[in-house]
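Chapter summary example.
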Amino acid sequence: MTARVGLIGHPLDHSISPAFQQAAFDAVGIDARYEAWDLPPEQLEDFIAGLRRPDALGANVTIPYKEAALHHVDRLHETARFVGAINTIVNEGGHLAGYNTDVAGFQAALKDAGVETRGANVVIWGAGGAARAVAWALIWRGVNGITVINRTPVRAGRLRHDIAAAITGGKPQGVRLRAYAADHPDAIEALRLCDIVVNCTPIGMQRSAATPDQSAPETPFPVDPLSAGALVIDLIANPLQTPLMRQATTAGHRVLGGLPMLVHQGAASFELWTRRAPPMATMNSAAQTAMQAMQPIQDAP
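The structure predicted for these 301 residues follows.
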């Protein structure tokens, strides 16, 4: 019996996860098919319930369902509970467990790139599930301060509150936490003072050439206020060079794209589903090949 596993999200025409995850299953000889499950919100609960069937291994979860999906599983791993979002569902004999491998994926990407975070002041732009994972990854890597900036100030404030409350005793334990609306004057000041800024929004993500989103701004924030030594990280994996990354590179900043984190978090999910070591070389190669194949889409008008 061919096992079922896939990616839950909306939209998914930009995703390369099916390419590198299928390559991993094939490489280790597991009879499984990894699919893209593009779902409207009203189908999310019933679809996740269907993952309890014997032929289902589980799923990955991406934008915009990382926070909503945790309410439809039977138990949460400790990291997922701290983060308040899941990106991986594992079918454990008919019971669904929710995990967050984005934390480990982001940490692995930083390690591979040689990024030092201890003592750094970081701006997280966005307040969704990915932002929550990034915040925890950075706290565990010893940052000095985190400023959450979001278009909706309530969401930024809620993330700041949840991080503070989850840390022992509800105290930041030396990590300075702030939150601002994107149009607040202090948001620009936070950019000016930060060592690292991480885009956790989908702004700049490649959409289908058939349905371009012309209304979206090109970049989530301006790069002009950043100090000369600031590192710009964009969690978007497709395209490889987002508009934000191009602007930051032109301005002389170091940049890190989202592909390494995407592959690392996917590898951690693969291990949870299969209890097998992920074939990293195969996954990285398949991801790069899939990205190259999508280059004509990126250049389409």
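To summarize the output: The longest helix spans residues 259-274.
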